[in-house]
Amino acid sequence: MRVTVLKEIPEDPDLSAAWNTLVLAMENPEVFFTYQWALAASRGFQNHLSTLLFLVYDFDQLAGLVALAIDPRAPRAAFFLTSSTADYCDIVSTPENRRAVVLALLEEFKKLGLSDLVLANVPANSATLQELPGVAGSQRFYVTSRTAYNCGVIHMGGEKQRETLLRSLAGKSREKRALKRLTDLGSIKVIHLTEPEQIGASLESIVSAQISRFLASNRVSPLVGPERRAFLQQLSDLLSQSGWLKISQLEIDGRPVAWNYGFRFGGSWFWYLPTFEMEYAHVSPGSCLLRLLVEEGAKDSSLQWMDLGLGDESYKDRYANEMRETRYVRLSRGFPRHVLSVGRQMVSTTAARFPELGEKLRQARASYGTVATRVRETGLAATARYSARRVVRSIASQDEVLLFEAPDAPADDPSTTQLIPLTREHLVEGSILNAEDPPTLRYLMRCAGRLAQPGASGFLLQDETGRPIHFLWIDNYDGFRLAEIEHNLEPSSSNAAMIFDCWTPAAERGRGHYAAAIHQAASQLRQEGRPAWIFSGATNAASLHGILKAGFQYRFSMLRRTQLGRSIVTRLETTAAV
After folding, report:
1. CA-based nearest residue to 245, from 36, 404, 386
2. 6, 71, 65: which is closest to 35 by C-alpha?
3. What is the pTM of this model?
4. What average pLDDT does the segment 424-443 reach?
5. Cα–Cα distance measured from residue 511 to residue 526, given in angstroms and rounded to the nearest whole number
6. What confidence tens digit (pLDDT) does each residue in 20-34 have?
7. Contact call for residues 319 and 174 (beta carbons, < 8 A)
8. What SS3 class is residue 133?
9. How far apart are CA 437 and CA 397, in angstroms?
10. Which is nearest to 135 in space by CA: 190, 97, 164?
């Protein structure tokens, strides 16, 4: 066998044809193994990963290939190029050639001076897993392997099995109720988008809905990162041209409310990237879409199975009649590296067997990450001082919150910015613009949770180009809880309003957006006949400066003294801080 190593996926129709011919001859043909998927991943992540394509030839015939990648931060370890995007990954070759291809790969791997090879999400019935132990041992690689995921699959079977599946669907009471609630809203219809010219607008809606859904569940979608969106765009173009992309769109009276960014390949229909509009969450549009697709698939004799993919969402269990296991395999050169790999696997296995221990380990890792981030950002000495202050505060502390009221006739605002009501679309845009700003992403997740609840109203300050540059919230003054001192304000005026939880993304700080935003908020509240209030910690100099710059006037402060867990809150009419 002869091996050629390329540092990119070339745009070569002949290679594409030979590559995909091998994929279709595999024991588990998957769209994730195709040339198109690898090319999309190579293009999408080119700024963060280095591609290594191993082409294995038997004389002049392509016998197999492996698309790997290297993260520059760990230059001696390689992994599947598609591992962060594909539900299944594997070495591409016919089953009978797999041993020779794996052997050629490992020999070339050693020549390149690489130490670790990570093969994630390999199907458990892959010939790779059968051949790997023997070949790896002969090349002096140590191997660790564990279960990665169990993926639900709906096997369609023959005519009788399909009839049974349809009867089962008709009898699922939960799905019937969800579909009834959906049809009460209007006429429902599922359409399938497969042509390149149909994809653009639908892809934008999918990305927006997915980011919004993640924020509402206190998570950050991978799609906020530009490389993941670039990958999806490339994948859409390449797969639609090949006829393998199938975006299913559920509409109510012509309005799209749920989608599945899916694929039809080799007898399979894949449930890959489902999402829905958050405002319809109460009628479960995603689950309804899956039910309708399963019904459609059961009536399609050309379809062998529907693959529900990675993820242990409970709704999948109500449909799947088979499971597909994937394996996580790590090959290491050198016993010390192998010991580290075994140790990590033991910790992972133990955490899975004992959920409480796993949760404690995750908490410990999160705490370590927080400390490491603080050390990296502020230095070891500052982190030590911060920790010492926290210890002291646990024994005795004093916190003061200053409250300010806007004047009856606030001055005109000469800025070109505009304060508008906050929507989920704004949160999506803010997430994309601040993908590398974790504190802002955490703030936006908090905003998403508030938008789903009645009560406080969110607002956004836009610059002249429409970009979000500051966020704030407004709630009733009476009974407002000052979280900083855990105290509820006494009633003042039945229609008074409190401005709170203001936030400027890191990239926009130092430009006066905070003062401009709260000034405009106060002006709008006064136009509604509502006194405007705001507060700040007494030691927050930047916040106090912005409040005074916006024209707010100090009224009083609330002082909390805590000693040995006992707190007393006192109202002060004057303070030396202002």
Report:
1. 36
2. 65
3. 0.85
4. 96
5. 25
6. 999 999 999 999 999
7. no
8. helix
9. 31
10. 97
